Prior knowledge:
By secondary structure, the chain is of the alpha+beta class. The chain is built from two helices and eleven strands. The chain is globular, with a radius of gyration of 36 Å. It starts with 5 loop residues before the first helix and ends in a 14-residue tail after the last strand. The relative contact order is 0.15.
Amino acid sequence: MIEMPPLANRRVAVCGLLYAFLSLFALTTLALPASAKVLITVDKSTQQMSVSVDGVPRYRYAVSTGRAGYGTPNGTYRPQHLAASWFSKLYYNSPMPHSIFFHGGYAIHGSYEINRLGGPASHGCIRLHPANATALFELVKSEGMAATTIVVSGSNPVLASSPAPSPRRFGVRERPSYADRYRSDYGQASNNYYWRPEPRFFPSFNSY
């Protein structure tokens, strides 16, 4: 039997250990599942949410975004915090089950006002049916917040503007027309405003 020099033995041992380590690393890497990319898109104009995983559509839900005066902000976000059980500290401890916070206090969460889904009704959060909120929460939790993107777009509802009040309600005088100057009630109070008389000798010098 031919004995190998001590240096050669050490080289063989190191090579064997390196090969074993690389083999173990390759097996471990193959065994770990790769994180999927989750994309959550919310269209406020249609009050719909679409969820895709690695580009493949997974869910489509009706939502309720912010009502007039409480718009949901547009933008591209990452989940910041997950809370399976949460209560609003700002709005009377209202339940927010399976909350996915994405922008400060704004969150995607379940709502028990299911009859209002499909129309803007919240204070800015994105509401879902409780069962749908649970499914989305578990998906984001399993795939990871870092692999999840939330995109919010569309228009917020606008508060209806009140019509300008009629000047006659507040006693504001209006300039009478030429025909009004010869009315039988000219110069008398009528309909909460006053018909102002004018001298008929020099009408061109009267201003209103």
